[in-house]
């Protein structure tokens, strides 16, 4: 495969599109050969070789347009990216560079979405190794060489050059004992960790703060409407998936932090049943409700990732209750799955009719019961027992996370230490608040 210029690649279709026109390069070769037919054979061979090396992209596949070779990063699926990687249209190194270019365009510049906290300094090196492995041994699976963004409460070893802060300066520079278990599984499957996504600080467990706001990352905003809420603590992951800053993003949920960003950002999120994915190495709120799952552009992509990250982990005893073996969830994909189903639309409490419109095709989607209100909906809305349980778990489990760290420059080791740290360093919070208000 030849190396195309930055202009020709056009950031793999997301920034500048190549012009779809007939292959003029092959015509140039024929004219050059005709005009140089009197030259020596050796000179002709050298010239033709050089020209063909530059023209191979067009002459070998003259009917393939730039758009069909380089997928649009806004919509590119994991399967489309794998197809391009398998056929040699581009490499994982190309993908990483393209996603870095997308992040550079919109994260702190332009719309300033603040969806990404940091990128992985070793992503290109990892991508190159995986490209070489693909050539020599073939791909490991469907996410081999695919760039993935992690919510910044999912731990990665600092040797890779990234932090795990949960959006708090109290964890900046901290050293975790190991990768989170889901990260280990992603790496084993051949995924490339592209960077860390912004989040609601401590997954929105820190007081009354806006969805998607953190001290280290500022305010994440929705890509579909200026300054709109990204919703939920996985807001950075949701926004990044929605605007093509990574092929796949990872989030966590305790109560709505995957489902809400998915809804607000028009992406697909899967909140796995607690115990299906390990929480080891994830900054906790509650082991009774925390779960880790994907946010992607399509259901098929989300299921591909879920199949990769699900599995037992002795460091999270809840996962030991999983069935064996873990099923391949991609086999459950069925476009006719809702045929004959009855669908209920719970409007009371769950939907605001002045803001929400629901459209459906009864013939395609099955019978619809609208409204299908839940009698106890208002009781669920005002119930306090959940909050009491989550706050209790948070205090206990956060302390364990702090104390398991190999090193933490802030010396914070408990919830009371964390509150004291924030009280003693208001300038850190004020700085990011100013960026949020006046940017």
Largest beta sheet: strand ordering: 1-3-2-6-8-7
Helix content: 25-40%
Q: Using the CA coordinates, give the radius of gyration.
A: 25 Å
The CA-CA distance between the termini, in Å, is 43 Å
Number of strands: 10
Bin the strand percentage.
Answer: 5-15%
The 3D shape can be described as globular
- One letter per element, helices H and strands E, the order comes to HHHHHHEHEHEEEHEHEEHEHEHHHH
Which residues sit in consecutive blocks of at least 5 with pLDDT less than 50? Answer: 1-67, 431-439
Q: What is the residue-averaged pLDDT?
A: 82
Sheet with most strands: 6 strands, mixed
Determine the number of helices (DSSP H or I, runs of at least 4 residues). 16
Structural class: alpha/beta
Notes on the structure:
The chain has 16 helices and 10 strands. It is an alpha/beta fold and 439 residues long. The strands form 3 sheets. A 6-stranded mixed sheet has the order 1-3-2-6-8-7, sandwiched between helices. Strand 2, helix 8 (181-188) and strand 3 form a beta-alpha-beta unit. Helix 2 (24-35) runs antiparallel to helix 3 (41-59). The longest helix is centred in the C-terminal third of the chain and has 20 residues, at 385-404. The two termini are 43 Å apart.
């Amino acid at each position: 495969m030849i190396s195309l210029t930055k202009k020709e690649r056009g950031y793999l279709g997301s920034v500048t599109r190549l012009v779809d026109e007939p292959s003029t390069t092959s015509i140039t070769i024929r004219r050059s050969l005709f005009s140089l037919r009197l030259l020596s054979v050796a000179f002709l061979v050298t010239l033709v070789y050089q020209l063909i090396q530059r023209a191979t992209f067009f002459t070998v596949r003259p009917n393939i347009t730039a758009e069909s070779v380089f997928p649009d990063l806004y919509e590119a699926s994991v399967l489309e990216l794998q197809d391009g990687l398998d056929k040699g249209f581009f490499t994982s190194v190309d993908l990483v560079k393209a996603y870095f270019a997308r992040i550079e365009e919109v994260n702190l510049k332009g719309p300033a979405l603040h969806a990404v906290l940091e990128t992985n300094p070793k992503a290109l090196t990892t991508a190159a190794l995986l490209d070489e492995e693909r050539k020599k041994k073939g791909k490991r699976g469907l996410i081999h060489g695919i760039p993935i963004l992690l919510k910044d409460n999912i731990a990665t070893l600092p040797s890779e050059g990234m932090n795990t802060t949960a959006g708090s300066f109290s964890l900046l520079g901290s050293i975790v004992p190991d990768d989170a278990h889901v990260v280990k599984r992603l790496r084993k499957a051949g995924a490339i960790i592209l960077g860390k996504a912004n989040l609601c600080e401590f997954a929105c467990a820190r007081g009354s703060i806006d969805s998607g706001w953190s001290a280290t990352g500022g305010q994440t905003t929705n890509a579909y409407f200026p300054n709109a809420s990204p919703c939920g603590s996985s807001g950075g992951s949701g926004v990044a998936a929605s605007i093509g800053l990574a092929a796949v993003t990872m989030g966590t949920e305790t109560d709505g932090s995957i489902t809400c960003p998915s809804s607000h950002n028009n992406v697909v999120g899967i909140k796995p049943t607690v115990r299906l994915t390990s929480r080891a190495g994830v900054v906790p709120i509650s082991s009774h409700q925390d779960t880790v799952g994907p946010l992607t552009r399509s259901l098929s992509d989300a299921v591909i990732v879920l199949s990769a990250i699900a599995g037992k982990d002795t460091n999270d005893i809840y996962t030991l209750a999983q069935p064996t073996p873990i099923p391949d969830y991609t086999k459950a994909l069925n476009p006719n799955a809702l045929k004959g189903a009855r669908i209920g639309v719970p409007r009371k409490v769950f939907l605001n009719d002045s803001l929400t419109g629901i459209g459906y095709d009864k013939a395609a989607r099955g019978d619809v019961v609208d409204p299908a209100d839940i009698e106890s909906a208002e009781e669920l809305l005002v119930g306090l027992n959940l909050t009491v349980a989550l706050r209790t778990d948070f205090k206990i489990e956060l302390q364990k996370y702090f104390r398991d760290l190999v090193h933490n420059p802030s010396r914070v080791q408990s919830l009371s230490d964390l509150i004291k740290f924030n009280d003693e360093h208001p300038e850190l919070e004020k700085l990011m608040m100013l960026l949020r208000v006046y940017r």
